[in-house]
Amino acid sequence: MTALDAEELRGRVESDFSRVVDLLNQKIALKSVSAEGITGEHMKRSAQFVAEQLAQEGVDARVVQSRNPDGTDGAYEVIGSKIVDPAAPTVLLYAHHDVQPVPDASAWSTDPFVGTEIDGRLFGRGAADDGGGIAIHSGALRALGDDLGVNVKVFVEGEEEMGSPSFIPFIEAHRDEFDADVIIVADSGNWSAEVPSLTTSLRGNTDLDVTLKVLEHPVHSGQFGGPILDANTLSAMLIGSMYDKDGELAIEGLASQEPVGGLQRDIDEQGFRADGGVVESYRLAGRDSLASRLWVKPSIAVIGFDAHPVEGSFNVIADTARFRLSIRTAPSQRPEDAAKAVTDFLIAHAPFGAEVRVETLDQGMGWSMDPDAEASKDAMTAMREAFGVEPVNKGEGGSIPFIPELQRIFPDAQVLVTGPEDPKANAHSPNESIDLKSLKNNILTEALILSKLGE
Ligand code: BES
Ligand code: MN
Ligand code: MN
Predict the structure, then answer these.
(1) Domain limits at 175?
(2) Which residues, in sequence order, are CB contacts of 152 under 8 Å at separation 6+?
(3) 305: which of 226, 314, 323, 371 fits an S-S bond (Cβ 3.0–4.6 Å)?
(4) Is 279 among the domain residues?
């Protein structure tokens, strides 16, 4: 294809777009929440739907159930290929069909499982993360149709939101079905709905469960209160001790780094506060550019805390407390090293010598892109063409831990991390949505990348 065909492709994406929105609406209605059971019937149905959609684009897509490392049944994965010319380059298209749970539908303005269009955005759980990725691949393959000049392989995963437990054995068992020159992971996003980006880095992640014990059993808070601090207070002190006065983590051995490829543009604080719904009086924690705090410095969130509920509480001093820390690690730090640094810190800083036990859970490595890879340059050109503005590359604070695994197994593959999200997408939150105009431009971008790679 020549450059002239960009307008032809744009026309094709445009005329196919109502089908793509319909696909997304059907996908949202499938409620493919992997947290409700990776091996559930609802996940199988979701995988089958995705396979049928890709089959319409000429991919011999099929559903394969993976196996966990311990031999038990794993996720329903969609794999397949469309081989046009054995001599042409091969591109692996990745997305995931599982979605985050909806713990409280009343926090949504629309039904989370009914796609609803409002002001150019389509709302629904998984509309962006990662129904948008599936929509991009489907739309790009449809736009190229018989003009596709590369071999395409697809992998639409069914357990990404659960940390991809069966991923490694699955790729190892299906090496040939994954082997590619370029891998497009459509599970991240753009600077904004208007400004496209390649994702230059992702943080890694590791979770720790911390148990703090001060007493053999709960005791009367009047009789013992004063010298004995309750386990909740001691936990709060322990958690607080990880930060300095600016709210920056102060843990030896927990790494930070510079933005990958240099910082092209910092994140605007006002927009960031508005997108996050941050209360007005709150001062942002940490030092350095906002972008580096989000992308390449570590962060820790308490994502679970076992304590007595307020309702029905009575006058006792809690003997133990348990909390879960979710640690986001700098892209280049091994998560096990980060977990060890935090574990050592927590044990060394046990307030008043309370007993602190730490258990390490899931871990995933971060990732950085190769800005000089040929495919990165092609992708930037395609984004410029499709969106009509200069791309601004960005890191991501989120994690996609299988990318470094893919890169390790296929060291020569060039990985492009793209995707449909923008700062207003509310992935994992109530009122998740995708910007439809941006989705159209993302589809055109991917069609242009595939077309360029096929030249
Ligand atoms: N699509 C996200 C990753 C992401 C988040 C990319 C924000 C760009 C912006 C992915 O689905 C995700 O949520 N990953 C998990 C991984 C975890 C389960 C190991 C995450 O980041 O929490
Ligand atoms: Mn995702
Ligand atoms: Mn997600």
Answers:
(1) 6-202+367-453
(2) 59, 81, 82, 84, 90, 91, 92, 93, 141, 450
(3) 323
(4) no
